[in-house]
Structure formats: C-alpha cells, structure tokens
Automatic annotation (TrEMBL):
NCBIfam families: HGPRTase. Keywords: Cytoplasm, Glycosyltransferase, Magnesium, Metal-binding, Nucleotide-binding, Purine salvage, Transferase. It comes from Anaerolinea thermolimosa. This is Hypoxanthine phosphoribosyltransferase. One of its GO terms (cellular component) is cytosol. GO terms for molecular function: guanine phosphoribosyltransferase activity; hypoxanthine phosphoribosyltransferase activity; magnesium ion binding; nucleotide binding. Its cofactor is Mg(2+). The gene is hpt.
Length: 187
C-alpha cells in the first residue's frame, strides 16, 4: 500500500475545519428540529465518519439507520446513473422526520435515486445533509438542505471518502494527485 503522502496533492479541508463546520451543522439541525425526534439515515460507507461526528453535535433526540447503495459498472470513480440498494433500512420511515446523511454529492445521481426510493415510503419530512458538494459536476438537480463545504471538481479522499476502498480513516479531506497514485494493487 502506498503511503498517502506520496499522492496527497493538498489538504483541502483540515481536521479542525471539518470539526468546526460539523458543530455548526449540528447546531443548525438542532434548532430546526427543536421538540422533534429525528431519524438520521447514513449512506454507507462514505458517510460513516461524518455521521458519527454529526450525531455528537446534534442536541435533539435521534435514532440512526444505515443504507448502502452501489452504482453498476466498473471503474469506481464515476457513478453510472444506475443505482441499486445493497443494504436496505431496518426501520419503517413512515411519519418519521428523516435526514439523509451523505459524504459527497457529485453528479447527484445516487442521491436523486435514494430520495426517490425513500419518499415513496411516506416519511413526514425528508431532508439531505451532505458534507461535501461538488456542484460543478451536477447532472441531476437534487435538493440539499445542509451542506458542509462546496468543493472544486477534484477527486478527494479521507474522512470517509475512499480511493479504491482505502484511506477512509484519515481525519482530513485531501486532494488526490492521480499522477502519483499507483492503485491499490501495487504494494
Ligand atoms: P454521484 O452519484 O455522482 O453524486 O456520486 C456520489 C458518490 O460517488 C459518493 O457518495 C462517493 O461515494 C463517490 N464520490 C464522488 N466523488 C468522489 C470523490 O472525489 N472522492 C471519493 N468518492 C467520491
Ligand atoms: Mg458514498
């Protein structure tokens, strides 16, 4: 495995900046849902670090649920537009106040599909909280209610986001220098 220092182009969002912004998002959500009970639905796997920090910043009572989706096709750096559920919720979301917790919105295809699938289950409300928004890449319009950071059109990793399934554990968001990245098969 390559050490990430070998292909880190730059640290785009530091650990401190991430944590500060997540506390602000938690405050905003806590104000908006005062007196209510929430259900946070995390989209695996990228959203998992964000979820656990966001939960600690939210003061209203909330349950958590997980869902996983995958895009068909090869490559892994572009979503193909065809999204299927690989892990569904264990909870009935009818009449619940739901917030979807996502790592990043890129083309918007994944989110758009997930929103469609969840809205037909009649939640009382359904909002979206995404840590990162690469809005330049948007192909499908999606409503996003809470956004951590707008980012440029660059491939990023860390804090839940992977390159070929690794490096999710890093506490910051880095930009990959693809010229210096050799792929996970070349140890
Ligand atoms: P979308 O369907 O194009 O919006 O793709 C969203 C999904 O693609 C995210 O949930 C991520 O898993 C993945 N993704 C998009 N951009 C990046 C990136 O820069 N780094 C890592 N994963 C990404
Ligand atoms: Mg994801």
């Amino acid at each position: 495995m390559q050490d990430y220092h070998e292909f880190l182009g730059e640290v785009l969002i530091s650990e401190a900046a991430l944590q500060k912004r997540i506390r602000e998002l938690g405050e905003e959500i806590s104000r908006d849902y005062e007196g209510k009970k929430l259900l946070l639905v995390c989209i695996l796997r990228g959203g998992v670090l964000f979820l656990t920090d966001l939960m600690r910043a939210i003061r209203v009572p909330h349950a958590i649920e997980f869902m996983a989706v995958s895009s068909y096709g090869v490559g892994g750096r572009e979503s193909t537009g065809q999204v299927r559920i690989t892990l569904d919720l264990n909870t009935d979301i009818a009449d619940r106040d739901v917030i979807l917790v996502e790592d990043i919105i890129d083309s918007g295809r994944t989110l758009s599909h997930v929103l469609e699938l969840l809205s037909i289950r009649h939640p009382r409300s359904l909002k979206v909280c995404a840590l990162l928004d690469k809005s330049e890449r948007r192909e499908v319009a999606v409503p996003v209610d809470y956004i951590g950071f707008q980012i440029p059109n660059k491939f990023v990793f860390g804090y839940g986001l992977d390159i070929d399934d690794y490096y999710r554990n890093l506490p910051f968001i880095g930009v990959v220098d693809l010229k210096r990245y050799h792929g996970s098969n070349s140890d």
